[in-house]
Amino acid sequence: MTDKPLKAPDIAEMAGVSAGEMKRIAEEYKAVVPSRVFGRVKLYEQKAAGIVEKISSMEAAGKTTADIIRELGGKVAAKSTKEKTGEKIRKKQSAPAGNNTPPGKKPAPRPYRGREDETAFIELKLNRLTNRVEQLEKQLLAERAERNEERKEYLRIIAEITEKVDTTGKWVDYFDKKIDDLSAGQDEFNKKTLEWIDYTEEEIDLLKKPFWKRRR
To answer: pLDDT tens for residues 141-191?
Structure first.
């Protein structure tokens, strides 16, 4: 099963970099960042997120574009003017300041390079974590608002059902009373009918007797 192709903003979010940095890395390191072009849209494999994150960390450590491409198994192409300028800027930013110590004074000891790299890497990670936390907070707020709307809808449905049940209960009580009234009327009718039958049977028995016994 192949991974679903993703757009640049998705890769940037997964790698914890800005959209602008993602665009620059994808262009400058296209030899090692896997992508495909569909019409006017460039899509990336999901593993590109890990590569972009690694490139960003290696750049923060002061490595050159060529070194990064080699370490990631890519083939170094001829550098464009834009790439050369970018490397010069990064080298200038990462290089220690020049020796401006006045004569007769010892230069101040430079901070340990490994500690600088570690600090820069930690800051980069913290920025990414902060961005991720902010995104998660926005998602949680949106989901909470959606849950509240669903809860309101459920309460409305329950209220409607309760109202219908109450109405149905009233109708059931009404028909139960009607049935009880009909049953009571039927019992009274049956009682009268039995009394009439008994009376009729007595009269018939009397008529069957001789006339002189009837008078007695």
So the answer is: 888 888 888 888 989 999 988 888 888 888 888 888 888 888 888 888 888
pLDDT for res 69: 93
* Region class of 37: left (phi > 0), else alpha (psi between -120 and 50), else beta: beta
Q: Which domain holds residue 68?
A: 1-95
**pTM beyond 0.85:** no
Residues in the chain: 216
Tokens 């907070």 sit on residue: 137
Distance, in Å, from the CA atom of 112 to the CA atom of 194, rounded to the nearest integer, reads 118
- Which CATH number goes with the domain that contains 66? 1.10.1660.10
Residue 30 lies in a domain: yes
pLDDT of residue 57: 94
Tell me the C-alpha to C-alpha distance, in Å, between residue 46 and each of 14, 51, 87, 114.
9, 10, 27, 31
Name the token pair of 146. Answer: 């959606």
Number of folded domains that form the chain: 1
Alpha carbon distance 203, 197 (integer Å): 10
How many Cβ atoms from other residues are within 10 Å of residue 212's Cβ? 7
Looking at the domain assignment, is residue 163 inside a domain?
no
